[in-house]
């Protein structure tokens, strides 16, 4: 799976590549995915085969690692509906396939879950679960556990109603489906539901924390990362932003958006919920990764969940109960004062609330957040969480949003820019137990790639201007870098190949929300383009072009 | 003498303003739509140009300040701006640039809005009355400076991301535009 394990640590036990020899890395092979859009996916290696998934049209390739040059074994083309491209908010990306029991599972942009035989490339089943006519797409990487494929929808900018569902791994049939807004019975909230904080207790909050019927277009999608704890049999998933962006149109806490659910993997019944950003004002989807760790907290062993959140805080939650143990900022913040650990509530600064007809300036972090989907990695050797993230602020003006199914439901205009210091990206090593940054590396552009860390104490990440970098996991020293053909927003993978060597692979091809200016040829004269990201990314066209190329490196 | 010149100038001004603001009091009902027989390419076998027959409706809308400002308002109302922003693009392509995938004439644009386009431009037939589609199309052309500056909208309610349409320098349509991903689909 792209996240390496159920706990989503992206930590590899491989030790062949070290801080001393990483400078000798050489290209072992390359492969063009044939699609020049944002490559957010992660190459996946199972045995001696590498699987690579393209952005829309979501073609899956199998490469034979046992042969020189890793030639193509087969390709599978699910032929998704082309119109899906028009309702994908932020480039036509896909965050990866996942593997289990001889099959690959992935989502297509038009809302179909696919299972493909890993050996032959034959389609095992296809299950249509999303509807592009109401603006639903799918971009997340599924997670497979307990014989089920867990998937969620995207489309929080289109007024969709967010859901999360489990399909039977063998047949693709829906086992259960939970909505993230609306009445308790739809949300799968029942007698098992024991949220930690009072603000999440009560009947049908998914209806009552909204103006009448607003929950029907309320968002709360699941387009990010999932984790699973086999001992507790709980699957963890975040929920996306509420719709529309204009928050004046939805007074209330807007449950269960911009939060996190722990659900029973077999029944989908919610166990607990915590809301990162109640009544979200800034498009802060709560869908980032949750890294499951067992650590000592105030002298007690605790099962925790670490979440670097879009609102700018690294949270440590008790993953059995949903209690917030810590929430410390990792990004300049002008919008909130911190998290009240008694009530669990994020403390908004009321003066920073955007309004209709007035430009609210200097909102930090911006809409894409201190950190967006780009997954972090945790090394038990250093105790650091390696965070690829941004340094961005924005100006916002609201207007009335008009709901037309299948079109954007925003009511907001945004213009983003670099945060304090002028750099737009940061790669931070976060000391989890120490609750602070150990070191960080500034980057000109938002760091939109994922990362990984190895037992050899080397981490890897990529930049939007195309550099693939190896960093010393302890010191933050850049040990090696290689310029790929296009900007990097993908997730690196490391593996031991059939040649016995440790390899590192990454997809190069700029895009995603900040990179769509290049991948879809947007016009940088309009700062509100790409939902306001264009304003911050005008110069990206000067440093990179589109791409779609896999690079695989190994020591000579 | 100077007085006569002045009066004449006034009359000319008034007349031109009239045309600038010209509009029919009773627009055509929702059901009716104009017929535009336009091509998406400059090639036609054995001809120097493809055969094109337009309804002539363009004349009512192009260069008409009232229709252009209505078009600008509708561009937000129908959530065009959600996908195309203020023309820089996002989910949909940029509209302030000079490149057109499906043609940059007002008739082409009317058809784009009415029929939709395969890579995700919704079809608005039956959702937007015909005359409003024309207003939108005229405004879309104004976004890339393809409307007289005397008639193009001169201010924006938005965050002023770029100069208003009447100060946008004209960029005549170039055919081609981006290659949509489906056009690059392997196999």
From TrEMBL, chain A:
Known cofactor(s): pyrroloquinoline quinone
Record-linked InterPro entries: PQQ_b-propeller_rpt, PQQ_MeOH/EtOH_DH, PQQ_rpt_dom, Quinoprotein_ADH-like_sf
Family annotation (Pfam families): PQQ (PF01011)
Domain Pyrrolo-quinoline quinone repeat: 5-325, 443-504
Stored Gene3D superfamilies: Quinoprotein alcohol dehydrogenase-like superfamily
Keywords, ordered alphabetically: Metal-binding, Oxidoreductase, PQQ
Keyword Oxidoreductase: yes
Family recorded in the similarity comment: Belongs to the bacterial PQQ dehydrogenase family.
Protein name: Methanol dehydrogenase [cytochrome c] subunit 1
Species annotation: Methylobacterium isbiliense
From TrEMBL, chain B:
Record-annotated Cytochrome c domain positions: 66-144
InterPro entries listed in its UniProt record: Cyt_c-like_dom (IPR009056), Cyt_c-like_dom_sf (IPR036909), Cyt_C_IC (IPR008168), Cytochrome_c-type_DH (IPR051459)
Keywords, ordered alphabetically: Electron transport, Heme, Iron, Metal-binding, Respiratory chain, Transport
Ranges of Low complexity composition bias in the record: 146-156, 174-187
Membrane spanning stretches: none
Annotated segments matching region Disordered: 146-187
PANTHER family: ALCOHOL DEHYDROGENASE CYTOCHROME C SUBUNIT, BLL4482 PROTEIN-RELATED
Protein name per UniProt: Cytochrome c6
Organism in which the protein naturally occurs: Methylobacterium isbiliense
Gene coding for it: petJ_3
């Amino acid at each position: 799976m792209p996240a390496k394990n159920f706990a989503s640590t992206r930590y590899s036990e491989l030790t062949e590549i070290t801080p001393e020899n990483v400078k000798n890395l050489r290209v072992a092979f390359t492969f063009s995915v044939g699609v020049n859009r944002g490559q957010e996916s992660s190459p996946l290696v199972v045995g001696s085969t590498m699987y690579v998934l393209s952005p829309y049209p979501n073609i899956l390739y199998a490469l034979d690692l046992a042969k020189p040059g890793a030639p193509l074994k087969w390709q599978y083309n699910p032929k998704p509906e082309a119109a899906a491209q028009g309702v994908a908010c932020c480039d036509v990306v896909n965050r990866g396939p996942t593997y289990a029991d001889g099959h690959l599972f992935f989502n297509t942009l038009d809302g179909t879950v696919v299972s493909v035989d890993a050996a032959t490339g034959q389609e095992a089943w296809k299950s249509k679960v999303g509807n592009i006519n109401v603006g639903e797409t799918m971009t997340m990487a599924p997670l497979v556990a307990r014989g089920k494929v867990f998937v969620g929808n995207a489309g929080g900018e289109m007024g969709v109603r967010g859901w999360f569902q489990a399909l039977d791994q063998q047949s693709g049939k829906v086992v259960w489906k939970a909505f993230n807004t609306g009445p308790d019975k739809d949300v799968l909230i029942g007698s098992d539901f024991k949220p930690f904080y009072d603000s999440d207790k009560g009947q049908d909050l998914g209806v009552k924390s909204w103006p009448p019927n607003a929950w029907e277009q309320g968002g709360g999608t699941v387009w990010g990362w999932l984790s699973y704890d086999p001992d507790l049999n709980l699957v963890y998933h975040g929920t996306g932003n509420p719709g529309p962006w204009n928050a004046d149109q939805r007074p209330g806490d807007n449950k269960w958006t911009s939060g996190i659910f722990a659900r029973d993997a077999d029944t989908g019944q919610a166990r607990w919920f915590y809301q990162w950003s109640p009544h979200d004002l800034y498009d802060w989807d709560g869908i980032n990764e949750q890294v499951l760790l067992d650590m000592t907290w105030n002298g007690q062993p605790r099962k925790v969940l670490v979440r670097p959140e879009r609102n700018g805080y690294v949270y440590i939650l008790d993953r059995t109960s949903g209690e917030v143990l810590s929430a410390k900022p990792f990004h300049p913040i002008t919008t909130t004062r911190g998290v009240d650990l008694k009530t669990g509530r994020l403390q908004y600064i009321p003066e920073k609330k955007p309004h209709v007809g007035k430009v609210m300036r200097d909102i930090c972090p911006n809409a894409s957040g201190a950190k967006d989907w780009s997954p972090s990695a945790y090394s038990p050797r250093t105790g650091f969480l390696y965070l690829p993230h941004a340094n961005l602020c924005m100006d916002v003006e609201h207007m009335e949003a008009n709901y037309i199914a299948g079109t954007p439901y925003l009511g907001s205009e945004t213009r983003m820019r670099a945060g304090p210091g002028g750099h737009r990206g940061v790669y931070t090593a976060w000391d989890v137990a120490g609750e602070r940054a150990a070191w960080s590396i500034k980057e000109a552009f938002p760091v939109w790639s994922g990362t990984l860390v190895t037992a050899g104490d080397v981490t890897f990440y990529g930049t939007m201007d195309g550099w693939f970098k190896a960093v010393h996991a302890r010191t933050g020293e850049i040990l090696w870098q290689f310029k790929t053909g296009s900007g990097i927003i993908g997730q690196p993978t490391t593996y031991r190949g059939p040649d016995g060597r440790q390899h590192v692979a990454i997809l190069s091809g700029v895009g995603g929300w900040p990179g769509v200016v290049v991948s879809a040829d947007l016009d940088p004269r309009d700062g509100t383009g790409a939902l306001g990201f264009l304003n911050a990314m005008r110069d990206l066209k000067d440093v990179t072009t589109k791409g779609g190329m896999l690079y695989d490196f190994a020591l000579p | 003498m100077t007085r006569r010149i002045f009066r004449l100038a006034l009359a000319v001004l008034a007349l031109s303003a009239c045309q600038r603001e010209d509009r029919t009091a009773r627009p055509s009902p929702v059901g009716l739509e104009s017929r535009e027989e336009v091509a998406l390419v400059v090639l036609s076998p054995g001809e120097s140009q493809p055969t094109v027959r337009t309804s002539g409706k363009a004349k009512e809308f192009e260069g008409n300040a009232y229709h252009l400002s209505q078009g600008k308002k509708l561009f937000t109302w129908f959530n065009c701006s959600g996908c195309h922003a203020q023309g820089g693009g996002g989910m949909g392509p940029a509209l302030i640039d000079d490149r057109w995938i499906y043609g940059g004439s007002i008739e082409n644009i009317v058809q784009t809005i009415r029929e939709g386009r395969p890579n995700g431009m919704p079809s608005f037939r039956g959702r937007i009355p015909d005359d409003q589609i024309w207003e939108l199309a005229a405004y879309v052309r104004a976004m890339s400076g393809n409307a007289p500056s005397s008639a193009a909208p001169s201010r924006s309610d938005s965050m002023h991301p770029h100069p208003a349409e009447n100060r946008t320098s004209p960029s005549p349509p170039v055919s081609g535009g981006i290659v949509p991903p489906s056009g690059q689909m392997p196999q």
